[in-house]
Amino acid sequence: MKKVLLLITSFISTTFICFAGNIILEGNYQGKNLYVQNPFAGTGVGFCVQKVEVNGQVTTDEINSSAFEIDFNNYQFKIGDKVTVKITHKDDCKPKVLNPEVLKPKSTFEVTTMKLDGDGSLKWNTKNETGKLPFIIEQYRWNKWVKVGEMDGKGIGDNNEYVFKISTLHTGENQVRLKQVDYTSQPRYSKPVKFVSTQPEITYTPVKVAKDITFSAETLYEIYDQYGNVVKKGFGKTIDCGNLAKGVYYLNYDNKTAEFIKK
Asked: Phi and psi dihedrals of 6, rounded to 5?
């Protein structure tokens, strides 16, 4: 019985699939070629790889060697173009693609303009995007950067326009930035943009809580216990604290940090 091996490795928009007899890589052209390690067949006669196809076309690359290059320059791809590579090999051996990550999207965006309006509209333009990756929108509050949204990047082009509505602006100075993370797991950030809100400060009651905490306006909030565990978080004007155990808690809200006692 023929042995069948199925291996699926996925990262964002790139997949790597290996069957007995076939290796298929799907992703986007990033300006680099693939390199393949090509062992002898199990019988010892000839090399393992039989055929290589790029987007359905059989390549003219020399594959009868212990290692070879899949040259994308022959296809006049543009950065960001979809690419599917199919490597057909003998069943008694398995070639190895040495750098499959070159088809994975990489964060290369550059922000040309970015503005935060008083209604929470974050508008930005980018250039030099070479792969579809999400933009993570982060807001600085409570002495840390907090994720407040996410938007898919266009991944190609030199004048991409984006608009995202942030519903969690706080009183005083607001800072917002963009983040992307690619296959390297190393985040890349934009410079923060600032907006100063003139809205009145948000307050809350009571300090000794029997059931609910009430804010003077809707706000993003977090509640921590004495051990630093987040026990509640959300956005709204009230927090139901009826199920909290008695004790001291720490409350992040608006752009402030406070302390309350659950009775």
From this structure: -120, 120
- Contact between 193 and 111 under an 8 Å Cβ cutoff? The reply is no
Report domain extents, the chain: 7-103, 110-197, 204-262
Looking at residues 75-89, what average pLDDT do you find? 91
Strands 96-97 and 110-116: unpaired
Smallest Cα–Cα separation from 107: which of 203, 208, 51, 30? 30
Cβ-in-10-Å burial (0-12, 13-18, 19+) of 89 comes to: buried
Segment 100-108 mean pLDDT: 91
Phi-psi region of 208 (alpha: psi -120 to 50; beta: other; left: phi over 0): beta
Q: Tens digits of per-residue pLDDT, 203-234?
A: 999 999 999 999 999 999 999 999 999 999 99
Mean pLDDT score, 177-181: 97
Distance CA 232, CA 187 (A): 27
**Cα 154–chain centre separation:** 13
Q: What is the pTM of this model?
A: 0.74
pLDDT band of residue 7 (cuts 50, 70, 90) is very low
CA distance 139 to 169: 8
Contact 77, 21 (CB under 8 A): no
Could you give the CA distance from residue 130 to residue 78 in angstroms, rounded to a whole number? 10
CATH code that applies to domain 204-262: 2.60.40.10
| CATH code of the region 110-197 | 2.70.50.50
